[in-house]
Amino acid sequence: MAACFSFSSAPAKSPFFHCLCPLSSLRVRVSFWFAKGPVHLFSSPAKPLIRCRAASVTTVGASPSTSPVRFRLSNLGPQPGSRKRSKRKGRGIAAGQGNSCGFGMRGQKSRSGPGVRKGFEGGQMPLYRRIPKLRGIAGGMRAGLPKFVPVNLKDIEAAGFQEGDVVSLESLKEKGVINPSGRERKLPLKILAEGNLSIKLNIRARSFSAAAKRSWKLLIAASPSFLGERSG
């Protein structure tokens, strides 16, 4: 169903107003006819109104049957619409942002160039020099550097090992599970507990996380003949 309103004058070349208002899409078209041709103006389409109850709201992209996804640095990101591009500031009246374009009349911040550096407080001792230094890796100490090459059980399961194979640093490198570089090439292997194993494997590692040890104990209690060699 659509409503159409038309207004026209008797002369052929005189301007007339024509308005189309289809109720289905809520989009308005306005046309102005002049001697050289029509000029069309469109309004933005109205956004649909969505109403839902709190009980029926579910997480987007996740089904109730799947396990919850852990937050990691690789899957974190801003919400859609929360990050906007900074507006390009002009100079002068022609930029359409006022005479001074928000920079004020005079001063260092109104001139061209980078202005003052970050953290500058006019010459007094800045905040980043007043607070005490951090300890550990944040302060440049070696105590916070990694001591192991961590590998999860799910990565070992997805690597395609056969039953009875030996899982070590060398075999994980051959499978492409890990690719240590620099000082990490001299670090030992550590097994983490995310995921499960479905076959018997001989794992040779220097350390196991507490959760991995707990899952191993439960697995041994359920099937004593499941666990293979475990060195370290």
From TrEMBL:
Listed Basic residues bias regions: 82-91
This protein's record includes keyword NADP: no
SUPFAM superfamilies linked: Ribosomal proteins L15p and L18e
Entries under Pfam families matching the protein: Ribosomal_L27A
Any one Gene Ontology molecular-function term assigned to this protein's record: structural constituent of ribosome
GO-annotated cellular components: cytosolic large ribosomal subunit
InterPro entries (alphabetical): Ribosomal_uL15 (IPR030878), Ribosomal_uL15/eL18 (IPR021131), Ribosomal_uL15/eL18_sf (IPR036227), Ribosomal_uL15_bac-type (IPR005749)
Record field: compositional bias (Gly residues): 93-105
Region (Disordered): 63-119
Gene Ontology biological process terms from the UniProt entry: translation
Large ribosomal subunit protein uL15/eL18 domain ranges (all copies): 150-214
Domain of life according to the entry: Eukaryota
Keywords: Ribonucleoprotein, Ribosomal protein
Protein family according to the UniProt entry: Belongs to the universal ribosomal protein uL15 family.
Name under which the protein is recorded: Large ribosomal subunit protein uL15/eL18 domain-containing protein
Organism: Vanilla planifolia
